[in-house]
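Human: Cast an eye over this sequence-structure pair and say how the chain folds.
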Amino acid sequence: MPAKDLLSADGFEVVKNIYVRCKNCGGLHIFRKGESSPDTWSEEANMGTRTEYTFLFDGQCKRCGNRLLSTVRVSEYPPGTMEGEPSIECEGCEEIEFSSNSVEYCDYGTYINSPEISHIIIQHPQQVGQKLSFVLDDGQAIVDEDERPYHNGHITIEVPFKRQLADILLEETGTIRFDGNDAVLSEIIDGKNSRNTAMKILGKVAEAVIVRNCFNNPEINKKWLDKARRGKSKPEIASRFRAIGTGLHSTKREYPHKYNPFDTQRDVIWMDSEGKVANVIGSNVVSGVQAGLQIKVSGNGANYVQRAMIKNQYEVPVVYFPINDDFDQIVSNLRKKAASGEISPIEIGADFIDVREVDKSAFNSVYDYYPILEDLFYGRISANDFVKEAYGIVPLQNAILANALEGVAKRILLFK
């Protein structure tokens, strides 16, 4: 169901995402249900107005660049009734999942008052005693019409975790692949310790999260680039360079010469549109040290990560995701060893970085992905069920963080 602001009148809407496979390379593509507004055509008939709805979904394959088109058509006659079954036509792709109940008649009055729709009340930031009632819709929050004068526009709702994780596992790590119409695990699972497999994949997921956050947020991109270059970059320099993951499948597709899943030094590097990589500040062009980050995720960092730091294995900063909140413990141990002369001093925040100090949202995402990966690798959920749920085939289960609703509520976080 589209948000209220986007719904001009009652009528038929595409209410489920459309899953297609590229005919050129077999890559998965998802047309989001809210991506297309219908073109309509009407004529008068014996039982009232007949209205034809045409939804055009136009996309591009992320793998090969092939153009993908899907056209959904449905007829309303008599008013409020679907005439026959909806149809879908595809060019450059074939549908994986589409059914008649992918298109439904949307009566907004009935929808808005449904007990199945979650409502939240938050304190209005400027009006004492005034509260706003919001309806949680898919991807947006809607202000009730009679309260709209107190609020300009809608509040964005982020739906992280499962959908974003599914994108990463399908597109970046290759952990999940499609076999026919079913999603299956590609990873070789350690039968004796599925936790090890989950943690190994979590490291690649963390790499993808940092890269994606850099792409979506120029400020975050500059912060990480400054860490990688060991100095401050001018804004115009930072804007030139894009973070890429040396072990991610997107790099293999877009920058195959930089794809190196066995790189033991740099999980993330920066490159400009001309293919030039960013170097550490002060390096010369010919023999400069390439800027980068090494990403570490561990539930037992006091052993695994601490040993690596003691051995001084890395020439680039190590970014640590402390799943068990042991960053300070490792820092304390490293400082004691440095004070005793066992190791060279390690600069905290430059050589060894707590990801939470630069991008806490990245840590929060990875932290919440971990139990999902464990469920996958222990077999508590199937890859197929996970993908279907992640892309919204199962209705959203809402749990609102209380602290996100305090003060001036610019954003509400919606979790699964």
